[in-house]
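Anyone else keep sequences and structure tokens together like this?

Example one:
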Amino acid sequence: MFGKGGKGQDVVSMTEREKAKRMAPLRIVEAYWNGLCDGSEVPLRSQIDPRGMESALENAFLMERIAPSMAKMRVAGTHLNELMGMQIAGMPLSSLIAPDEREAFGAAVTRLFADPAIIKIELEAEGGFGKPELSASMILMPLRSDFGDVSRALGALVSHGRVGRTPRRFKIKTVDIQPAVTSGIISRRPVEIIEDEPSAISQIRLESETLGKLVEPKKTSAPERGHLRLVVSND
């Protein structure tokens, strides 16, 4: 038998601490977004500074709406690349989702930009040979473009378990949708399909040079794609 403060309670305590540590990147990114949002207006994409969430860059990503229910990754942390086994900047966020779950996921993305809303999703990876049990948590938070429309978003994803063979795609367990702002008027513009813009790549390069936190991809014959990676400096 275990008394007060006995071994049984120690096990529970260790489990809770482990969960809190695993979920820390989501909490950091969410707290950073909340710090930019005054409760009446969605923050601007131009306000995002990687230094404000430095310890969570591996799990963070920025995306852009390309259709009412679809968003494209603009900059992605290394953890998301590891889950897919490839660079995913430029790919739809739904690439991480199992095909038969993408309609439901698209409905949540629609709410993200249209309401606007904060989306929290619990995920479970598809199984199979070389694909061990893997779960994940994702948060999506809206951002405004320089034109004032809600067409950008900041997100983060953390997983629990071994990645195994890639790509890993997820099924949706739960979706939680909360209003992003409590008051104020959010300007909306018609949805347009937006191609890769040279200016976006230039912005990634500029951030990389000035902050030393964003690392642009190696130049190849394929289009350039940016990604987030935490770089430790001992200077």
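And example two:
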Amino acid sequence: MTNWLVQDKRFFLLLLLMLIVLGLSLVLGSSSYTLMDYFNLSENESLKRIVFQHRLPRTITALLTGIALPLSGWVLQEFFRNPLAGPSILGVTSSAGLGVAIVIVLGSSLGFGSFIFEPGLLIIGALAGALLAMLLLISIAKQLSSTNAMIIVGFMIATIAGAFIEILQYFSSAKELKSYVLWGFGSLTGLSIKHLIYYAVFVLVGVFFIVKNIPSLIRMQLGELYAQTMGVNLRSLRIQLIIASSILAGVATALVGPIAFIGLAVPHICRMYLKTSNFYQLFAYNMVVGVILMTGFGLLAELFPGGALPINVITALFGAPIVLSIVFLNKNQIS
């Protein structure tokens, strides 16, 4: 299980790079403070507020998102055995977004009032939508032999979720519409300590379910019959992976927005770079690479000339070429 960790010097270099990027996220921003100012942080109340009230929450949010979305995508790709499987492609993100839209747009009508943006409500809405999408995918996938057909089903789920979102937007007030549009841009900023605690707890639960089931996933690679002979309970495995992927994609979507492509691109990058079937190694690399990229994208969005960009713009510009590369590099395997 851990032999690769002792031998893989690249992983420790990536860990170092991750720490550097996380550190840069704490010291870089739109303000004009110099590096020397940080050595006197305790005496500079203005800089202290910027670091602890804005940059530290942004960095923690990027770290948690960089763990949640790549692991959610990796589990889906391994479970469906398809490199194009990912929360955004299979409609999981869109369905989670529908759950959030119901909470935001219908919140006032249902009497939630000022509690619409309570993290618990947003997370419940997103998890319900993500779980529904995953259950639909699993039930339909049993009837299909083609992975291409499964991708089309996921796209249709996303389309239907998008249609319901547009209906909600059409009948919403200007204030509700603006709230949902701003949420849809995606952002790594603005989360309170309460939000971050919710976020961390749900990510830990999702990671726990994945780590617990890695041995079963390894046996699944040799076929379901072999896995069953080795004592794998396929029904239990399927349920736990649905829960893990839904939790990770749902909580990230609820609190950060519908971040595109990270759940698809990062597992592909790790698999292409490592060229290994060691699931423990892939698990660790997905987390570290995900954190590096999400934190880096957060910095790019923050430091963009002329003002901060929505994080979704950055991830889409990065992710779309990766999706195209997946299609072309796997054109003989995706069928």
